[in-house]
Input
Amino acid sequence: MFLKIENLKMQFGGLIAVNDVSINVEKGEIHGLIGPNGSGKTTIFNVLSGYYKPSGGKIVFDGKTISNLPAYQITAAGFARTFQNLRLFSSMTVLDNVLVGMGHHAKTGLWKTILNPVAVQREENIFIEKAMNFLNLLEVADFANELATSLPYGSQRRVEIARALATDPQIILLDEPAAGLNEIETEKLREILMKIQNTGVTILLVEHDMKLVMGICDVITVLDYGKKIAEGTGAAISNDPVVIEAYLGQEDL
Amino acid sequence: MNTTSIFIQTLIGGIGIGSLYALIALGYSMVYRSMGLVNFAHGSIYMVGTYLGIIWYTGLVLGLHVSYPVAFIIGVLLNGLLGVLLERIFRPLAKLDLMFMLLGTIGLGFVLDNLAVIIFGAEGFAVRSPLPNAPINIAGILVLPQMLLLICVSALLMVGLQVFLSTTKTGKAMRASAMDHDIASAMGIPVNRMNALTLAIGSGLAAAAGILAAPIVYVNPAMGAAVGLKGFAAAILGGLGSIPGAIAGGLVFGVVEAISAGFISSSYTKGIAFFVVVIVLMLKPSGIVGETVIEKV
Output
């Protein structure tokens, strides 16, 4: 098993945000995580990326328990993520934003920068080339030297994905990547996600755009009030009465 | 001597002392930016840094008299190490309310001040200048060589810092980590280590300022109080959290101080300088450079 979330529980004071959730993610799949607002999707992401320590259960990735590692080591273990609200480094260029994600692969540290600037420059050039590849993949290479925040919204979203890919992840957690995108941009995003899957990166996707989710996810897990209520292919999920009730119930409010 | 050359001479003095304030202000601003913490022990860290360098130069350690540049480097590095230790102390503090940060850092300042009194005694000493003590005459303007050294080395350090932060990988990682802790750690950047580096650089710059100023000022365990306060005022004046702001704030503060001492009255220097800070902040609350300060929650 590639990524195994075992009986995960996350409690904030009296509020149980995630209650005994187990999810298995296979290597190379696009795994959807859906559910009404407040069902615990982003909380699971935050536990996965190491911002919260789980109140119970554990996360095993490639045979190793990672739920007790600090966030930066989880990244080093092969996790990357994007955020619901855009959070690019605002006073940096698009290229620098992506380069920051590559820092932990650098073999040249601070001392080498001072003692052997040539080797460092060589490494830097390789990094820039790689970063440009990611920007090309996400079709935002034209903006490389512009300030990240000066880009149109849809492009900023793609820069965020490029930045996450730059950490060279085995699995990427995307938190509502289609939020705020128009139909054409969403279609583009779908193509990009397929391209990312083809490079061998596993995708865990939180998304409200059902058309997108149903269209590309191999497996979908449905959450409601912090509990897993269903799991299966898009077709199976959309006919599951429990799932329909969870969504319609919310609409009645 | 005419008024113009007196004015220029005063201005140079102001830039000299202003460089000192700027280096201190940088320490406040960098730490605030990256940890969201105002380090009120910074004045004491400046004093400790001064001692950590000057003691090697004046023979207080085993009677050693190393050369001034070597003492300078030793002081900067040792104070940088102190900065790394401070990160461990500040890590829990940075998560608390402003009041606790205030008490914690002020308390740490007292501890450092009193440790210095215990180790070196309450009395201070004058430091012999490594350069000739007589002012040199440049086109009718008299300048102390040590003052020129202070200005030049400070300028080099500030330019170096800017280049480091904007071009090197580590510098970019530090900026990224200051902008957004969560994202930075999701990018694989060890945020605590970046904070430690920030404190090391801030403390190193404070030591550099202190060792450069030592032959001009009087070295004693209480020397950090006034400079710490003025450096803080300078950081606020420029816009707390902004690096160009800290430099601008320090220079403006120094120049205002020198001009008011030279042309109005030396007894009112502090009053006038702080009055200018108040006026500037009333007109432009975000400081001279006025970077929008990100609210850390």
